[in-house]
Amino acid sequence: MPDAQTQHAAYSAELLVRFEVTPDKSATVSVLGFRAAAAGPEADVLGLVDPLAAAAPDQGCVLRDADLANRALVTRGSSVDLEELGGVGVGLGAAGTAPTVIRPFPRVYPDVAGVLGGVVAEAGPQTISALPEHVSLYTADSEVAVVEHTVPTLPRLRAINGAAPVAGMRVDASGGLTLALGAPAGAIVELRPFGSTVAVSCSMPANASTEGMLVIPRSLLAHLQASDGAGGFRPVSLEVARRIQTRESLLARGTRISIEVRSALAMELRP
Questions:
Q1: Average of per-residue pLDDT values in the chain
Q2: d(CA 90, CA 244)
Q3: CA-CA to 262 of 20 to 30 Å: which in 23, 27, 110, 240?
Q4: d(Cα 94, Cα 71) in Å, to the nearest integer?
Q5: Stated pTM of the model
Q6: pLDDT of the residue at 5
Q7: Eight-class DSSP state of 54
Q8: Alpha-carbon dihedral angle through residues 25, 26, 27, 29, given to the nearest 10 degrees
Q9: How far apart are CA 261 and CA 247, in angstroms?
C-alpha cells in the first residue's frame, strides 16, 4: 500500500541573471541556474537557494529570516534536490554590437540541514564595463539567441530621512526610516545587517509615479538591532533592486527567467 505520508515531488527550473551596479565599484554580473525537485509545498525554491532572490512582498514591508526558512523545511519534512541547468548561455549586449556570452559551470551547492543540496550551474561575479541594454539566452545547440529580454532600469535612491545617501553615513532611525526613490515602480528595497540572516524586505507598487516615498516602520527596524542589545549604530547594507521574471521553454519546460539589477549602500543604522 502507498504511504499516505509520502510527498510528491514538484519540479521547477530557474535561471537568475544578476547585475550589481554599486556606486564607486565596477559593475558585475553573476548567473545561477538549476532544476529543482521539491518534496513538499515549496513555492519559492529560488529564494531558498539564493536569499537575495527571495520573492518580495506584494506591497509594504516584511521581515525575513533565511535560517528560519531553512528550519521550516526540516519541520515540515520537506526537501529540495538541486540539479544544474546545463547548456545555457547568457549573452550581454547593446544595439549593434556582438554579445559577450557567459556560460555557467557546475558547482556543488553546500548541504543545508540535510534537506537542501545538490548541484547548480553558476558563473561570476564577473566584472563588466557597463550595464548591457539586453540579455540574450542561448542553448548548447544554437548559435542564435532563443530568448531576449531588456535589462530593467535601476530605481534611484535620492534621500534617506531627508539626507542625501552617502556610503558610511550614520542614520538615526528611532522614528522609522523614510526613503525617497526615483523611478520607484516595482522597486525592491532591502535592509540587511552584516553578519545576520535577518532582513527587512519592501516593495513599491508597479504603478508608482516617477517619484515615491517608502516608509519602513520602527517596529521592523527593531529586529535588526544587534543581538547583544547594544544601543550603538549597526552596520547594514541598504539595497535597491528591480527584478523582472518570465517563463520560457529553455532547456526545461517552464523555466523561470529572473533578471535583476541591484545596488547596495553600506551605512550605519541606529534602530
A1: 87
A2: 16
A3: 110
A4: 43
A5: 0.89
A6: 52
A7: P
A8: -120
A9: 18
